[in-house]
Specification:
By secondary structure, this protein is mostly helical. It is built from 10 helices and no strands. The chain is globular and about 75 Å long.
Length: 245
């Protein structure tokens, strides 16, 4: 038993002696540090590979959706475009709809991030200029997601109840963002009293056809900046010249 105790104490002392010895040997100290860090590095590399593969699948799905549309696209089409096996696909996404939802969520996050709160304090630029920049950034996001935006605006409803529900949820969240901006504008004295729910739907509806024509090249005839200004002026002023009567 004593011998076992001595052996245990000796084994326990080895790491300490090794640490002491490494203090005078920078090469040994470096190697020991690398040994301790190696499991963490392996985990980091594995996580990086998972992120890269997930991104690869999303990029492939976006391309296939752009060519075939959501309804005509299949998981097999995405597998071919991504160059992966079916088992690999299901490690990351349970279905085609799950990929589409992920792409929608990412685009919604970009749209939300493009809308900045209008500042009215001392030294702030004119509120209309800030609002114009918001509209311009939103159009930029939609242009950057051209294929997905076209799918949102063109895909027929009624063919897939899950798809319809996702579209309705997406537009509902967009409407909520617009309604929140209207209410904020009211508290800041920039927006007249109105039913923000109705007006937010009107704003969204007026944008959808214009954006579709812009992205499909169907004759808008304006660049992004001019289009942003026209959209803003229409939603702020409408069409009627109140001083003309």
């Amino acid at each position: 038993m004593r011998g076992c105790e001595v052996s245990a104490r000796t084994a326990a002392a080895r790491p300490a002696r090794a640490t002491i010895a490494s203090m005078g040997d920078p090469v040994l100290a470096r190697d020991m540090a690398r040994t301790r860090e190696e499991p963490d590095r392996r985990r980091e590399r594995a996580l990086e590979r998972r992120v890269q593969r997930r991104t690869q699948i999303l990029v492939a799905a976006r391309k296939v959706f752009a060519v075939k549309g959501y309804h005509a696209c299949s998981v097999a089409d995405i597998l071919g475009a991504a160059g992966i096996a079916r088992g690999t696909f299901y490690l990351y996404f349970p279905s085609k709809r799950a990929i589409f939802e992920t792409l929608l969520d990412e685009m919604l996050a970009q749209i939300t991030g493009a809308v900045r709160r209008v500042q009215t304090g001392t030294g702030a630029e004119p509120a209309l200029d800030q609002m114009y920049r918001n509209v311009n950034r939103i159009i930029e996001v939609l242009e950057g997601n051209r294929e997905l935006t076209i799918i949102l605006l063109r895909e027929a409803v009624g063919l897939d109840s899950d798809f319809d529900a996702k579209l309705a949820a997406f537009y509902g969240r967009i409407t909520t963002v617009i309604e929140g901006a209207l209410r904020l504008g009211q508290t800041m004295g920039l927006v007249r009293a109105c039913h923000t729910g109705v007006v937010s739907c009107c704003v969204l509806g007026s944008l959808k056809e214009v954006i579709l024509r812009l992205l499909t090249g169907e004759g808008i005839g304006l660049g992004r900046e001019d289009l942003a200004r026209e959209i803003l002026e229409y939603n702020l002023q409408g069409l009627f010249l109140f001083g003309s009567r």
